Amino acid sequence: MVNYEQVRREHSADNWNGDRELTSAASSADLFPKVVELQRRLGAQGFVIASTTSAMNAVMPLKIIIGNSSYTRDKVQQGLIKSVGPILASHVRKSPCPVYWHEDSNEAHQLDVPRPAQLISMPNASMHGVAFPVHLGGRKTGIAVFFAPSITISREMLMDIHKKTFILLKTLLKIELSSKVDVISINNRETECLQFAGNGMTSDDIAEQLGLSVHTVNAHLSSATSKLDSVNRIQAIAKAIRLGLIS
């Protein structure tokens, strides 16, 4: 059985070399290992870091910034955004209090999360989860969501993780805003290669279509991926679509 108190001591804030290790990150890829570290501390199986905005009385859908790839591809994109997402987006707009919920099933596994976290109703949830809302100022809010069959943590660990998620989201938002400036520098050839890649074409196919070498195509895609502050080609394509660079 996992000794959660020992895990908490090993991964406490004292061992993160202060907040500078988080605030000095240059890209989301720099912060990804830190979120994985929080995931391991919680004994979770997946995570999503997302942001949202509120306009008047309307609540905008959650926008995933980074996530654990094995979950983001299927369960999170379909489950979080369609069912869990609206409830979490509504909660984070109203309160910074951590929340948790149980899977809508008869399984015995439950989450043991201390106050100030609140148990909320999550109809049709396909997995247990705990979420840490963050108010970033203005209308911008964010949330860190972790999924697991069971979680048992102390109140001190809960507060420590909430503190870190605030720093993570604040840094990610800064990176996201700064990266939009770099989008302007993406040239036409890089945009073309991204569009073709987004259409499902391989580098060989794109090279043949544009009359370029495969090496040159890969160089354009790599450059575009870097400018979009993405960890891989798939993430770059998704971000380019969100920003309206490609369709």
What does this structure look like?
50% of the residues lie in helices and 15% in strands. The chain has two domains: 4-180, Beta-Lactamase (2-Layer Sandwich); 184-242, Orthogonal Bundle (Arc Repressor Mutant, subunit A), CATH 1.10.10.10. The chain has helices at 4-10, 20-23, 28-42, 69-94, 155-183, 188-198, 203-210, 214-227, 233-242; strands spanning 46-55, 58-59, 63-67, 99-101, 118-119, 129-135, 140-147. Strand 1 and strand 2 (58-59) form a beta hairpin. With 247 residues, the protein is α+β, with helices and mostly antiparallel strands. Residues 1-5 and 7-14 have low confidence and may be disordered. The relative contact order is 0.13.
Essential attributes:
single chain; 247 residues; alpha+beta; Beta-Lactamase; Arc Repressor Mutant, subunit A; 2 domains; seven-stranded mixed sheet; 9 helices; 50% helix; elongated; disordered N terminus
